[in-house]
Amino acid sequence: MLKEAIYHRPKDNFAYAYDDKTLHIRLRTKKDDVKKVYLIYGDPYIWENGEWQTEKKEMRKSGSDDLFDYWFTAIIPPYRRLRYGFELHDENDMLIYTEKGFYDEAPKDDTAYYFCFPFLNKIDVFKAPEWVKDTVWYQIFPERFANGNEKLNPKGTLSWGSADPTPTSFFGGDFEGIIQHLDYLVELGINGIYFTPIFKAPSNHKYDTIDYFEIDPQFGDKQTFKRLVDLCHEKGIRVMLDAVFNHSGYYFAPFQDVLKNGEKSKYKDWFHIREFPLQTKPIPNYDTFAFVGEMPKLNTENPEVKKYLLDVATYWIREFDIDGWRLDVANEVDHQFWREFRQAVKAIKPDVYILGEIWHDSMPWLRGDQFDAVMNYPFTNGALRYFAKGEVKASQFANIITNVLHSYPNNVNEVAFNLLGSHDTPRILTICNGNKEKVKLMFLFQLSFTGTPCIYYGDEIGMTGGQDPGCRKCMIWDEDKQDRDLFAHVQKLISLRKTYKAFGNRGELRFIETNDETNHIAYTKTYEDETILFVLNNSNQELEWTLPLHLKGKLLTNLWTN
Amino acid sequence: MLKEAIYHRPKDNFAYAYDDKTLHIRLRTKKDDVKKVYLIYGDPYIWENGEWQTEKKEMRKSGSDDLFDYWFTAIIPPYRRLRYGFELHDENDMLIYTEKGFYDEAPKDDTAYYFCFPFLNKIDVFKAPEWVKDTVWYQIFPERFANGNEKLNPKGTLSWGSADPTPTSFFGGDFEGIIQHLDYLVELGINGIYFTPIFKAPSNHKYDTIDYFEIDPQFGDKQTFKRLVDLCHEKGIRVMLDAVFNHSGYYFAPFQDVLKNGEKSKYKDWFHIREFPLQTKPIPNYDTFAFVGEMPKLNTENPEVKKYLLDVATYWIREFDIDGWRLDVANEVDHQFWREFRQAVKAIKPDVYILGEIWHDSMPWLRGDQFDAVMNYPFTNGALRYFAKGEVKASQFANIITNVLHSYPNNVNEVAFNLLGSHDTPRILTICNGNKEKVKLMFLFQLSFTGTPCIYYGDEIGMTGGQDPGCRKCMIWDEDKQDRDLFAHVQKLISLRKTYKAFGNRGELRFIETNDETNHIAYTKTYEDETILFVLNNSNQELEWTLPLHLKGKLLTNLWTN
User: Fold this and answer.
1) Angle at A295 between CA A289 and CA A301, to 5 degrees
2) Using the beta-carbon criterion (under 8 Å), do B361 and A99 form an inter-chain contact?
3) Cβ pairs A/B, distance under 8 A
4) Which member of A6, A162, A209, A544 has the lowest number of beta carbons within 10 Å of its beta carbon?
5) Cα–Cα nearest to B138, from B226, B239, B243
6) What is the DSSP string of B267-335?
7) How far apart are the first and last CA of chain A?
8) How close is the nearest chain A Cα to the Cα of B4, in Å?
9) pLDDT (tens digit, 9 = 90+) per residue, B347-395?
10) Residue-by-residue DSSP string for A165-222
11) Average pLDDT in the B499-525 region?
12) Domains of chain B and any CATH numbers
């Protein structure tokens, strides 16, 4: 057995509290190297005759990626304490793996050899809102969803869909438009809306906030927004807003004050200014988002800034009863701020959803003290590379997805925000070169996968467009121009996800077959005595597929054709 | 190159902020497998002609353990942001390692492949008090250090040193006794005292607190304690107390109230009670330390308990100006409590030292939001196994120590609490079977090692004793019975550590030779242009050792013989 490949470290994704009673333990070994793994475990304080008392439980292989196999077991320690090690077997050998290294025999004269989960304290358990697990999100870019009140149109507003969007064009989308089309969303079946920013800001995307306490007048007023949230709630739809707390806009009053008064400004410590006077070009002499002088980074370590932003965060929950915050550029803001953010918002609404925008490995934000989830771009990339771009074959896709699942605890995976596209990426139909069948497969995978899926407005009716601004075209409301077949497909998937527990988050996913020649994958989702089998043929060829033998004698239903 | 052995994951001990400007990046590879490693890195937002712009820096091998080599480099990213990957070479091949896996060539069309340290936010930097790096601690078990006021003797007090201690014996040690012997400690050269608990408690060890706001009368009153702290401070000695916050004693008033009033007690949620009425035997039906019914676990998730304990924590700092808290059974208390603890105590004394008692891998407590350090038992065990017990040879000892150093960030290592013995372990001279030379070697290693060393009272004069109560004998004050030669040895080492920066924490340690036949080790400590060479002969044979050639032409001083 290859010792160098064997990995475990307590907490994070390898040993974590799944709920108030249960610990999940994982182990990584070299792929196809180990035949059986047992967990050796016990309460650290139970001894007899000078020997630590342990039990043994077989672990199961929970998946594999390119290089590794992963092993899993769940344990309910009666006194909430656990010391443990691993007993690994291949055909010939046995190996004991502990925190102190490898042994031929499990040492019992001391618990200090062993890994330790010292105590399962409830308050430390990662707990995301339950409702998120059953939510299908819909992302709305408010400027482009629907124009319901032309009186609010900004100067120079173009008529709806009359042109391809540019970085600076306006089409007048607003809250009234969204309200008028809520029934469309209900028909589709979604039950959560994620709005990109709605606060006062000069751009069409509103990521350059001027005032975090005001709604941009092009979208409507607070009353209209309140009506929108209330209507959503009546229809069982949750509402998530976008918080741009990493940086402000250029016209944010405190930044304007610093521009004007320099070192004398009482807001000079609201930003990270390297020297006075401020220079915005060529490279700003203050910290910014990327090198964009118009987006000065906020000093979230400054107690005044912290208070201001936490007041913003709680204001929109308290006054408008929103259900979630999506946090823009969340990875560049300090962890301490997010810890206090979580305490503040959960104190007034315990089941609010906190979603960070992070594109890379996000374990340090998902330990229970900061976010509930991140935008699962590793999932996105895997799906796009397999279904849309054909860059990887079936087996590598399964490896990527298994790797994503094993990068985080299961309770984190269950609320991961799984998107295929967004206002920051080209439209999925465009990436698929217009091949609708590939889009359909992707939706099937997304909507049957672990996590909380999000559909970018218009993807369900086959809208197209490249990198932004291309992906931010006006929503098409003329049914003749909508791909109603694709709409029906997504609608059906959402309905299946809602109807069958195994289809959605309760179902545990296992890849049962991948074939690089035919490029198909097959996986099951199992919940209690119900198993749903998925076979996805990601090729242009017909696929003949024989149901696995062990399904014989069981009640079979074709969920797709009914 | 063995891909399965290659490991990196951002934050924790592999990528961390060393200070407000500097990131440390580490990589792990299979031992003796890789010849050269370069860090490929850049600001994520610097692009030219559609290509991400990167730089390259060679990493150096910072050490090896049983199975792995570790590579290290430090980077100061001008905009505090970093994306990075690794370029690995052996004789024939080159391999690029990124967050998304391995490549033959470094991809430059996207930064998403790469590992990410998104932003170096100062508030998240692990920061322990500077003074700890230059402190040599002395641990005092107050009941056994010196009896300076016989009027305070508890009932049944035995005369000083007249008998071997039992679990229940008293010898009347007190604050007055410590005050009378401060000059002894000054003579030895220590500049920090760690006191095991001093609060009101019935036992001789005081880990069964009755009242966290009162000093146990056998030690003296608050005035005397204040005088002790002030005298220590006058002599440049810091004072650390022991906080037993995981559990209370049986006679802690709130627990007595629950015992008496059961479910009606207003303190019923101060503990973790599984059912009423309370049963202490055979296994308590409430959570306890181990299965000790007399030590009920405190419910540190309960805001009332939290407030009470944080009031305790701040009270002794505010009123008595103590410099540190050592936290008993720290690993079984929730992380959230420790986060609030840190905020509370650092708010009133920013350079207070927070030391957790954790015997196992402690990364989850050392991320900057909880502790400054843990008791470094992995160091202890390594040293005892090599020097005292002869269980491992020179090379394995170096492996163990290198592994310990690479388990944590460097700024964590610099304040690690390195002990050889304590009130919880047999005396080091006893473990060495009375072989003083081995004890001397151990002290040399401990006092020249990275971290903050602690001497258990009496070890410096050759006291003996097995597992407690054996290791808790009365301090010997009769100089004729003290091993003054050993005292002088420790005194000299402390003095060298204070005199030469390279000797102590500023010096960077490298093992330059280990020999399993002669069982000797050689290492250097380097600070700026000063290098100290240590050769430790852990055998009964004489060792002939030739100075390394590259020392030729440099100014040499024998620090030991002067």
Assistant:
1) 70
2) yes
3) 124
4) A544
5) B239
6) TGGGB-BSSSS---SSS-SB-BSTT-TTSBBB-TTSHHHHHHHHHHHHHHHHHH---EEEETTGGGS-H
7) 47
8) 5
9) 999 999 999 999 999 999 999 999 999 999 999 999 999 999 999 999 9
10) --TT------HHHHHHTHHHHHHHT--EEEEPP-EE-SSSS--S-SEEEEE-TTT--H
11) 95
12) 3-124 (2.60.40.10), 135-244+302-499 (3.20.20.80), 247-299 (3.90.400.10)
Q: What pLDDT does residue A553 have?
A: 77
Instruction: Please tell me the distance from the alpha carbon of residue B437 to that of residue B432, in angstroms, as a whole number.
Output: 9
Asked if A54 contacts A41 with a C-beta cutoff of 8 angstroms, the reply is yes
Mean pLDDT in residue range A434-453: 98
Which residue's structure tokens are 């240590």?
B534
Q: Flag whether residue B47 sits within 8 Å of chain A, measured between CB atoms.
A: no
Chain A residues in contact with B333 (beta carbon < 8 A)? 119, 121
How far away is chain A from the Cα of B276, in angstroms, using its nearest Cα?
17
- Structure tokens belonging to residue B346: 């650092």
The two structure tokens encoding residue B107? 């991809």
Residues of B in contact with A123 (CB under 8 A): 301, 334, 336-337
Q: Residue A551's pLDDT is what? A: 72
Its ipTM equals 0.96
Q: Taking CB atoms and an 8 Å limit, are B364 and A122 in contact across chains?
A: no
First to last CA, chain B: 47
**Cα–Cα distance, B323 to A337 (Å, whole number):** 27
Q: Which of residues 22-41 of A touch B (CB under 8 A)?
A: 30
Kindly list the catalytic residues of A. Answer: 328, 357
Contacts of B155 (CB under 8 A, 6+ apart): none
What is the C-alpha to C-alpha distance for residues B213 and A36, in angstroms, rounded to an integer?
54
Alpha carbon distance B371, B366 (integer Å): 6
Structure tokens given for B222: 């608050």
Please state the rounded mean pLDDT for residues B111-121.
Answer: 97
pLDDT in tens, A160-184: 999 999 999 999 999 999 999 999 9
Euclidean distance between CA atoms A200 and A208, whole angstroms: 8
Question: Cβ A116–B360 below 8 Å, yes or no?
Answer: yes
- Return the bridge partners of A194, or none: A139, A240
The pair of structure tokens assigned to A81 is 């304490």
Type of residue at A15 = A
